[in-house]
Amino acid sequence: MSNPGFTLLGPHHRMQARGHLAGLAPDAAAGPGAAARALALVRERRAPLLVGAVPFDADRPGRFAVPAEVVWDVPRAAGAPRVGAPAWRPGDDPQYRSAVEAALRGIEAGMLRKLVLARAVDLTADDDIDTAVVRDELDRRTSLGYTFDVDLGPDTGRMVGSSPELLVSVTDGLLRSQPLAGSTERRADDAEDRAARDRLLASTKDLAEHRLVVDAMREALAPYVTQLDVPEHPGIVATPHLWHLGTTITGRVRTGVTSLQLAYALHPTPAVCGVPTTTAADLVKILEPVDRGFYSGFVGWMDARGDGEWVLALRCGLVRGASLRAYAGAGVVAASTPRSELHETEVKLRTFLAALDGVPGLRARDTALAGVGA
Questions:
Q1: H or E element: which one contains 212?
Q2: Which domains, ranges and CATH numbers included, belong to the chain?
Q3: Which of 137, 165, 309, 346 is labelled catalytic?
Q4: 192 an active-site residue?
């Protein structure tokens, strides 16, 4: 059986979509207006739902399609996660460190308060990479996050990854979002791991970074809700390699507001871009030599009522044949250092690369590129 065109496996919904009944043309799939056009499409087709992916630059065309078949409650991948070191490890990246230095100068000059910068590394394998195999391994390693595998078309490739971050979901008018910002590497020793978690919860730098994200999301959501609950203090979210500060935002949306409309209203959050958004987005284009494409955009689904689930496209890679471009990034704030942000990207890259140890002959291509969100 062929690899499904769209897979999103999360803690609440596990779905795959196959086939293609209809889709939005590129000009109709660009910008926030795509939300209304997507809703109209799924209603016109009287289909259960529509699936989609939106780039980091939401003014560029996304991909929205009504599938021919949708399968829910997809079983978890069988077997245990592979044990061993990642097939390839990222090294130093002077260009990335230079970009962080430039961001810090901008923050010191008062241009902005936060900028998310990331790296892209280009790898190749002996044969075409089967994203289904990578997806299953990521699924085995993911208990609370979201594993995705999305066909972006023959000219782009397939994006596969395991995101820890829910951008927004709506169910029967109830909104849920869980922004993450502020993180630290986990430790092998239990006592040291707990100490790292506790230091993160008390970190002035990370708490300030997290507050920037939460405040921006509260402001973005305000016009669309009748009630919004934003906890005063973040909690902790665990992934296999990192502790994250996370806040679970809940609320009730106004009549007629859809999940995709909210996703566009929130995107790009300070978790993948920066504060203020416009300045940060401009600096991303200047400091990052690799175009983000769909990385640090969002993927998900929406039904004819407007309910749905959209997650940030993080901890992921873009696969085309035997080639792979893997992405990871970190949020730069006043207390950041080039070395600390570089290390954070290394840890995040390992989250994805650890699922590739079954890919034969995985190695760096001639060029390793710096710069592309968290």
A1: helix 204-221
A2: 6-78+93-364 (3.60.120.10)
A3: 165
A4: no
